[in-house]
Specification:
The complex is a heterodimer of chains A (about 625) and B (about 325). Chain A is α+β, with helices and mostly antiparallel strands. Helices cover about 50% and strands about 25% of the residues of chain A. Chain A folds into four domains: about 180 residues, Multidrug efflux transporter AcrB transmembrane fold (Up-down Bundle); about 80 residues, ACT domain (Alpha-Beta Plaits), CATH 3.30.70.260; about 80 residues, Gyrase A, domain 2; about 160 residues, 2-Layer Sandwich (Gyrase A, domain 2). In chain A, strand 11 and strand 12 form a beta hairpin. By secondary structure, chain B is an alpha+beta fold. Chain B starts with 14 loop residues before the first helix and ends with a helix. Classes of the chains: A alpha+beta (about 625), B alpha+beta (about 325). At the A-B interface, strand 6, helix 9, strand 18, strand 21 and helix 13 of A face helix 4, strand 5, helix 5, helix 7 and helix 8 of B.
């Protein structure tokens, strides 16, 4: 009696070995490292590693090893995160023209473990350090911008079709076109309906008023929102990739939010500057005829607009734009060859290039201005209520006479610093944001705090574990040792599953593991207490073991399912670190069910099974 | 080793004073929640928290001076663990500041500028007003759904009276746990909320084990009153209750002692929750079931359908 068939023992043994194998990578240390890949048009060769070594030695930065890494990459391992930072600076300074480098954390695994793709647990930002921001996308503005586009399109359509109208404007989610009489209204409605099938139209005739109302269908509005969110994710990803952090995460969260996670990143100010702002350029001709003085007094000539440059001097520019930022296909920063000033080199798309060439050809010798536009969304507290506001700055950064016609590629100077030129080029390259964004949450954890959190977490696990192990061995003797073996197996399995899933381990996640260890012995306690009861009731040892396991089973399952309900709800409502707690708690419930019910039975069967027993060491 | 020889404690005999005590304490704690409220952490109030590390032990007054000099008023400055580690909290309504994620950068720059040595940015957190509100709402909803989920599960697996008992006990545990946080004005943050949900799980876990035994004994034992059977069930499961509570308490104590400041609220909530959850399984959950008038007939399993069909002519 009390013997498991061979297949069952093998199955359990298999699971345990599998667990040990995949938990193993966590034993190896993780090195702060830099991954080096070739920039566009360059290659990582055998000489790259030597180059990197030379750069690091020159800069006096200690490193552990420079080794070839997966698919055309080179990896440098450093002893500390401080060395990694200095190494990154040295590499950026000397090699960034040919290589891209990114900071990362890489386990020092032997080749055979790497071969089966075993990885250590994915540490959350609170453990490895890094920056996380939650970004809110202004969906109302996205819809508003969509309507704005339609308003412009309708206006030009009516003009093109020679339909007489009074005004076209949008307000409160709908576009209103005003006409003189019913005839024009009917004609306008027909034209708009033909061209923009997706718009829902209705008319309003009220005495002297003849109006056409157009609005988006809910489905189209939804599409507009989805598009804005998608476009923003793409743009933010492009921007984040420029920061040189390995494994950045940019992902949608909910209806209108985007989460950006940069493990190991250490400059939150720079990140927020790059994420939060939208900067672009506009090229306009100057209005040389109008009077600037009049304009400052409020009498701006028709067709012109008043701008200010960076020194605060007023400048009059023509209202119509030559090209805007979204016609820029590529941009890079550098220095003007003659003056040595920081400059941005800009490439236009074919439409923009054609227009630029046409305008510059017609206006040789006349001044043209570059306008730098920056949008930032801020929340102000007004009467204790948070109110969102978009702050838009438009400044003329340069003004120069057109010496000769140009088209596709040209340069713009007038920026304050090389840094600003660099950032602007990045913005132009990454593309525009489809809707304004705002950072609504930020969590930055420095690397030293991360390490401290790991140490504290590991210490708690060890002490908690030791306390339980000692208690169980004293209280249940042989059975206690079995429970302890099972508990350790449980810990290995939790680690293995967390590694396999690559689920994020956070500090509360470690707390979840600690808590699980306390509660995991519950299943064994229930079983052992039952066995003792059976013995007291006069059953034979073997029958007691059998009955103990059988009778405790439903209690164990009931008790664990209720905890699981709490864990699942925690998972669906929690964010970040709290979610990590729910994950380890849930994983722990499953592994402890397996180890306590099947695992401990198997060991007890191996010890006592099939033997004549007069008493049990319980 | 055995903690208890065969026990025969008349637990239910004490249920009246215990229930009265529970009710009085719960009312007082709810009163504290209403009057004193909670010391909500950044997660729920919104605002900015910055933790910086100095090379040398530093005076809080110097840090305050540096902040005032940088134009940041209304900041709360405290040591965090050691005298080199300082935490600065800026509530959302800190005078004249717009609540934005950039605030922490400006504060850090001001502190770096005012200090002779290096200042290390250990942690910076910003929670906007919208997010704080959402987290509060989600937290409340999570507790509600956890209770509903457990109510349904226990009602299906046992009987409605047990479900009501389990849920009342769980609410009692939640009230006591968060009540302590209110009375002593201990910071209530997301991690504490997670712990409260874990307490819900633990408390029901503990209750279910006793319920399970009550159900089993009702079906097995023919003689005896309801009170006698309930008492017997509690006595039979008592050593398990205490051992599991004890081991869990051990690990949570390890967390409290070694887990650092970040987890101190979390582990404190669990310590309170485990203690009170163990008590409430007996004196709130079980007492409620008894009070609701459970009887043997309620728990006798219905005759199997197959058997019934065969009996028909």
């Amino acid at each position: 009696m009390n013997q498991y068939p061979l297949w069952k023992n093998l199955l359990i043994l298999g699971v345990v070995l599998f667990g040990i194998l995949f938990a193993l990578p966590n034993v190896f240390s993780q090195d702060p490292s830099i991954e080096i890949a070739a920039a566009r048009g360059h290659e990582v060769t055998a000489a790259t590693a030597d180059e990197v070594r030379a750069v690091l030695e020159n800069a006096g930065v200690p490193y552990k090893v420079v080794e070839p890494w997966s698919e055309g990459k080179v990896l440098v391992r450093f002893p500390t995160t401080g060395d990694q930072l200095r190494g990154q600076e040295a590499i950026e300074a000397r090699l960034s023209d040919r290589y891209n480098s990114a900071m990362t954390l890489v386990a020092d695994l032997p080749g055979w473990l790497r071969a089966i793709d075993a990885q250590p647990m994915y540490l959350g930002l609170d453990l490895r350090g890094g920056i996380q921001v939650l970004i809110d996308v202004d969906m109302e503005a996205a819809v508003e911008q969509g309507l704005e586009r339609y308003t412009g399109d309708i206006r030009s359509l009516l003009r093109q079709e020679r339909v007489r109208y009074l005004t076209v404007m949008h307000e409160g989610g709908q576009i209103t076109v005003k006409f003189d009489d019913a005839e024009d209204l009917a004609e306008g409605q027909e034209v708009v309906a033909r061209e923009f099938r997706e718009l829902q139209l209705d008319t309003e005739r009220d005495g002297e008023r003849f109006e056409l109302h157009a609005r988006l269908s809910p489905a189209d509005e939804e599409q507009l929102r989805t598009f804005a969110l998608q476009q923003n994710i793409t743009t933010l990803r492009n921007r984040v990739n420029a920061l040189g952090v390995a494994e950045p995460i940019v992902q949608r969260q909910g209806e209108r939010r985007i989460v950006v996670q940069l493990p190991g990143a250490q400059d939150p100010a720079r990140l927020k500057e790059i994420l939060g702002a939208t900067a672009t350029l506009e090229y306009r001709l100057a209005d040389t005829e109008g009077s600037v003085a009049d304009a400052v007094e409020g009498r701006v000539p028709v067709g012109s607009r008043l701008y200010y440059d960076r020194e605060g001097q007023p400048i009059l520019l023509q209202r119509s734009v030559i090209v805007t930022g979204d016609q820029i296909t590529n941009a890079s920063s550098g220095f003007d060859q003659t003056s040595g000033l920081p400059a941005v080199f800009v490439n236009l798309d074919s439409r923009g290039a054609r227009r630029m060439r046409q305008v510059t050809t017609e206006n040789v010798g006349k001044p043209m201005a570059v306008v730098f536009i920056e949008n930032r969304t801020v929340t102000r507290m007004i009467d204790g209520e948070p109110v969102k506001q978009t702050v838009r700055t438009e400044e003329v950064i340069s003004m120069a006479n057109i010496r000769e016609p140009f088209g596709r590629r040209f340069q713009t100077t007038g920026l304050d610093s090389a840094e600003e030129a660099h950032t602007l080029a990045l913005f132009l390259r990454a593309g525009a944001l489809a809707a304004p964004i705002q950072i609504v949450e930020e969590r930055t954890i420095g690397p030293s705090l991360g390490q401290e959190n790991i140490d504290q977490g590991v210490t708690s696990v060890l002490f908690g574990l030791a306390a339980v192990l000692v208690f169980m061995a004293l209280y249940y003797r042989v059975f206690g040792l079995v429970a302890n073996l099972v508990l350790l197996t449980n810990l290995v399995l939790i680690v293995a599953i967390m590694s396999l899933l690559q689920a994020t381990l956070t500090l509360p996640g470690i707390a979840g593991i600690v808590l699980t260890m306390g509660m995991a012995v519950d299943a064994n306690v229930l079983i052992f207490e039952r066995i003792r009861e059976e013995i007291r009731n006069g059953s034979s040892p073997q029958a007691s073991i059998n009955a103990g396991f059988a009778k405790a089973l439903s209690t164990i399952v009931d008790a664990n399912i209720t905890t699981l309900i709490a864990a699942v709800i925690l998972f669906s409502f929690g964010t970040g670190p709290v979610k990590g707690f729910a994950v380890t708690l849930s994983v722990g419930i499953f592994t402890s069910l397996f180890t306590a019910i099947l695992g401990s039975r198997a060991v007890i069967n191996l010890i006592y099974g099939g033997r004549r027993l007069s008493k049990l060491a319980i | 080793m055995r903690l208890f020889k065969t026990l025969d404690i008349d637990f239910m005999g004490w249920r009246r004073p215990a229930v009265i005590a529970s009710v009085v304490i719960s009312v007082l704690l709810v009163g504290s929640m209403i009057v004193r409220g909670f010391d909500f952490g950044l997660d729920f109030t919104g605002g900015t928290v910055i933790e910086v590390g100095y090379e040398e032990p530093t005076e809080l007054a110097t840090v305050r001076e540096a902040l005032e000099g940088g134009g940041f008023s209304g900041a709360i400055v405290q040591y965090f663990g050691s005298r080199r580690d300082v935490v600065i909290r800026l509530p959302l309504q800190a005078a004249g500041q717009d609540p934005s994620a950039e605030l922490s950068d400006r504060v850090f720059r001001a502190l770096s500028a005012a200090s002779d040595g290096e200042v290390e940015l250990r942690r910076a957190e910003f929670v906007g007003p919208q997010v704080g509100e959402e987290l509060r709402e989600d937290g409340g909803l999570a507790m509600l759904f956890a209770l509903i989920g457990i109510l349904i599960y226990v009602a299906v697996r046992f009987e409605w009276r047990f479900a009501v008992g389990a849920v009342i006990a769980t609410i009692h545990d939640v009230v006591v746990t968060i009540g302590v946080f209110s009375v002593f004005q201990i910071e209530f943050n997301l991690a504490v909320l997670a712990a409260v949900l874990a307490v819900i799980g633990y408390s029901v876990n503990d209750t279910v084990v006793i319920f399970d035994r009550i159900r089993e004994n009702f079906r097995r034992i023919r003689k005896g009153t309801v009170i006698e059977i309930v008492n017997r069930s509690i006595n039979e499961t008592l050593s398990r209750t205490i051992i599991t509570g004890g081991t869990t308490l051990l690990v949570v104590l390890a967390l409290y002692i070694f887990g650092g400041e970040v987890l101190s609220g979390f582990s404190l909530a669990l310590i309170i929750g485990i203690l009170i959850g163990t008590y409430s399984s007996i004196y709130v959950a079980t007492a409620t079931v008894v009070w609701l008038g459970i009887s043997k007939a309620d728990l006798i399993p219905p005759p199997k359908e197959g058997a019934g069909a065969d009996a028909r002519p």
